[in-house]
Design goal:
single chain
């Protein structure tokens, strides 16, 4: 209870600060609060269980509720060109970020989490990939911090670039939806250009739909590699009398339970059975859970440890942000031809 109460208090403070300073997003305020609590030695042992619950359980609940913001008919309205832009942006950003991570010497687990967050939907995507990545709490915290930082920068930077890049309102909405990480950050960015919000949200949510197949594909790939290594080890260890085959390491299911819940939520929303008032409440709850979870993740970021590899991780995040924005912009231009 103490840690959960601390997360709730941090959530209230984050929304209050964002209300007073509209340029700040509650997500980044919450992460900063978590980092401060830990590095000022205020994260006492009595808080650990509650903040850990917030960083994992509440974040996964937020992923499930995110599905209630999606519906399949909206994707049909996007059209083939829009879907091609989204798919191309996700694939190139996901693969390119992991290549960059290897070049920069960032661990594969952290590189996978950053790639997922930047290519799909920020912290929610990081949470979905975390069981598969095999990293530690710091890897997850750093990935969340990077997508939160760059997504918050996008709120300021992207509207300023609309004029120089020659984007009309509709194209700007597609660009924002295809390149900004978190759904809340997408809304905040698109709202700065009147008329761009609806298009941006539809495009953004079409990226979110790709979360489940991406997690499933990575998990199946990991399972296949594990089975190949296990088979090779069994052959190498074989003796004339034969030896018992070593037990294969336990792998997560192809689709984690909360990601399956995310898909169910999409299906339910697509039926049109849920009233608008219920969807509005779910959206508010999802936002609050996400901000609380980011506080929990922030408490796992220890600055002294981060400094040792922080430069490479920060460079990876910035280059990945540039990559997703550039690919999305190129896609918008090609689709407009």
């Amino acid at each position: 209870m103490p840690g959960t109460a601390a997360a709730a208090a941090a959530t209230a403070v984050a929304f209050a600060v964002a209300h007073q300073v509209p340029a700040l997003n509650p997500s980044i305020v919450s992460v900063i609060l978590g980092v401060l609590v830990t590095n000022l030695r205020l994260h006492h042992r009595v808080l650990h269980a509650g903040t850990a619950l917030a960083g994992k359980r509440l974040l996964r609940c937020a992923v499930v509720l995110l599905g209630l913001q999606l519906s399949l008919p909206e994707l049909v309205e996007l059209g083939v060109p829009g879907l091609v832009v989204v798919g191309t942006t996700v694939v190139i950003t996901f693969a390119g970020t992991q290549v960059l991570a290897r070049w920069l010497g960032v661990s594969p687990a952290r590189g996978l989490l950053v790639a997922t967050g930047f290519s799909i939907c920020g912290a929610s995507a990081v949470a979905a990939m975390e069981p598969v990545a095999g990293g530690d709490e710091e890897d997850t915290g750093v990935a969340v911090a990077l997508v939160t930082l760059c997504g918050s920068l996008a709120i300021v930077v992207l509207p300023l670039l609309r004029g120089p890049l020659g984007l009309n309102v509709a194209d700007f909405g597609v660009w924002v939806g295809a390149s900004v990480h978190d759904v809340g950050q997408t809304v905040a960015t698109a709202q700065r250009v009147p008329g761009a919000l609806t298009t941006a949200v539809v495009v953004k949510l079409s990226r979110v739909v790709l979360l489940a197949p991406l997690v499933a594909a990575v998990t199946l790939g990991a399972r296949h590699r594990s089975h190949v290594r296990e088979a090779a080890a069994a052959v190498a260890a074989s003796a004339p009398r034969g030896e018992q085959r070593r037990r294969a390491p336990r792998m997560p299911p192809p689709v984690p339970l909360f990601v399956a819940g995310f898909l169910v939520a999409i299906a339910v929303t697509s039926t049109g059975w849920l009233p608008a008032a219920a969807l509005s409440v779910a959206r508010s709850v999802q936002s609050a859970l996400l901000v609380a979870a980011l506080f929990g993740l922030g408490t796992g970021i220890h600055l002294p440890a981060l400094v040792r590899t922080g430069g490479r991780s920060l460079l990876l995040g910035l280059v990945s942000w540039l990559l997703v924005a550039s690919v999305a912009y190129a896609g918008v231009r090609v689709a407009a031809l």
